[in-house]
Amino acid sequence: MLYxxxxxxxxxxxxxxxxxxxxxxxxxxxxxxxELDTGFLDNSGLDIEKVVGDLRDQEKLNTSMSGCTxxxxxxxxxxxxxxIKAAIRNNVEWAIMVHTTGRYSKYxxxxxxxxxxxxxxxxxxxxxxxTVLRPTMIYGSSRDQNMYKLISFLHKMKxxxxxxxxxxxxxxxxxxxxxxxxxxxxxxxSTTFNKDYNLSGKQxxxxxxxxxxxxxxxxxxxxxxxxxxxxxxxxxxxxxxxDKKAIISVEQVLRMQEDKAFSYEDAMRDFAYSPVSFExxxxxxxxxxxxKNKSKAKxx
Length: 300
Ligand SMILES: NC(=O)c1ccc[n+]([C@@H]2O[C@H](COP(=O)([O-])OP(=O)(O)OC[C@H]3O[C@@H](n4cnc5c(N)ncnc54)[C@H](OP(=O)(O)O)[C@@H]3O)[C@@H](O)[C@H]2O)c1
Prior knowledge:
Elements: E1 2-5, H1 10-22, E2 27-32, H2 39-42, E3 47-52, H3 58-64, E4 70-73, H4 80-89, E5 94-98, H5 108-122, E6 129-135, E7 138-139, H6 147-156, E8 159-163, E9 169-170, E10 173-174, H7 175-187, H8 189-192, E11 196-199, E12 205-206, H9 207-217, E13 223-227, H10 229-242, H11 250-255, H12 265-271, H13 278-299
NADP nicotinamide-adenine-dinucleotide phosphate binds near residues 33 and 75.
């Protein structure tokens, strides 16, 4: 039996779609935070059992994982240690853990915790197979926390402030490609067992190209105003000095300049991972935004 966490999330829902399209016959048990909005699981036709619980509840995790041989932990790296504890207790053979490329950041405040959790989890590779999947920034629908805000900003505003030159590389991954990757990792166990994979989008693009691509997709002619890095840092310093609840820190401005492009060569070789380009992948999300915006305008 396969045990899944985070199935109601952005990439989890794509994973379910793939299971359905493949006619997956295996038994699945999933831990869901709440039963609201889980009708898509009941109507999926999959052999799926829901357990309502919180990943912070170790006892619940331990008992609900009973009888499972494989775990796909999508929900969050911050619960990975609890999941591994429960997996050890239940003699799970293989745990697939969705973590993050955030561990590669040169800024310690961004990477230290991820590295510590991951290293702790990987110590248990002598007890079971542990495969780690590391997505880059996830996009693909209004469920993402990143691109949807950018789409909305570019749609509403003419000018876009760019901190620095915008030359840093990014390689966001579509949630559909992740959902597919989870499935492909599972069915290619002979090659994916106990391995680590970065899961990024088709090609790296600069931050400037990314903003231009979204703007073009929206049919807008936004004007990108570059704010020199020294001025951005100064502004962030002043802002943080006067506002204790500042929403952007100096380090965040600096982190924006960091390249976040990662090769998915291993995933391509081991399970034919073949992600969509950002240019193609963003279209659906832009269309979703435009449709929602249109219906909001009609209601006003
Ligand atoms: N967003 C990014 O750019 C990014 C980048 C790299 C890595 N990642 C990681 O990649 C993974 C997949 O991302 P995603 O966007 O598909 O995730 P997501 O949409 O944020 O979904 C998170 C899932 O975890 C569940 N969950 C959250 N807290 C829980 C708790 N305490 N107990 C039980 N379930 C809980 C949520 O349940 P509800 O639906 O009920 O809220 C949801 O199903 C996550 O681990 C994420 O941290 C994300």
